[in-house]
Amino acid sequence: MPDSHRSELAVATRGLRKRYGDRTAVAGLTLEIQAGEVFGLLGPNGAGKTTTVEILEGYRTADAGEVRVLGLDPMTDGAALRPRIGVMLQDGGLHPGVRPLEMLRLFAAFYDDPRDPEELLDLVSLRDSARTLVRRLSGGQAQRLSLALALVGRPELVFLDEPTAGMDPRARAATWQLVRGLRDAGVTVLLTTHHMDEAEQLCDRLAIIDRGRIVALGTPVEVTRAGADGTVRFTAVPGVDVVALAAALDLPAAAVSEERPGHYALAGPATPELLADLTAWLRDKGISLTELRTARATLEEVFLRLTEEGDS
After folding, report:
1. What's this model's pTM, rounded to 2 decimal places?
2. How is 90-129 classified by DSSP, letter by letter?
3. Which of 25, 58, 228, 277 lies in disulfide reach of 51, CB 3.0 to 4.6 Å?
């Protein structure tokens, strides 16, 4: 990667590899994250997400490949990189015997120009819990404290691991708004989440990884469009012979189903040819069509299909 291109990137990897004994956790992963974007890293448990993120954070060494984070090597330039990034761990790494405000003040002491701990308490809606021992915080409150700690040093790049785990709907919505605010301020956010709606709402781009490899990459719309062709749904009289319809449309038998009486779904490419063949078949059978619509696959449907294929 030329240096001029690297300067536009917050994260860049090429051919990243990591093995644990006989198991390959990351298999030649190449990835670029633009400065100032919210990027989602999605994948099932064991797909290589955590290993990849830990390498980017400088907590784990890659076996092979090139890594640059804010233009620096996380291992050899760790001292220069750490003040410029914020890390929110899923388990928090919180000290149970202290209070949120105390933790924020402690972390603020590590930076030359930290954010005001009192301001951060308000930002993550923990003012009422400022003097509550960490061990007595709810799971959602602990997550919000972890988020505040990740932001205390005014980072250029923030790693958020399952940022809304354990949060109630109101806190989750507030966290989403906070992430959008970070992007608006020019902060790059690398987000890992198992919530597909969260990824769709927050991410400018995302990658789905499985078995250490990227299986989809792009905006949420691009990934869903490329990963699945959508579903055709129609309503007619109950009891249509879906096996015969699938054969006529040259689709697998399982691709056509009667979801409930009179309501049918075709899991196939919603092309003009398919729609024409469907309506012609119904006409030839004397079956009246009362509704016909197409729907784009959801990100969750694409995620499950891509990762299930990796397991087959």
Report:
1. 0.80
2. TTTT--TTS-HHHHHHHHHTTSSSPPPHHHHHHHTT-GGG
3. 25
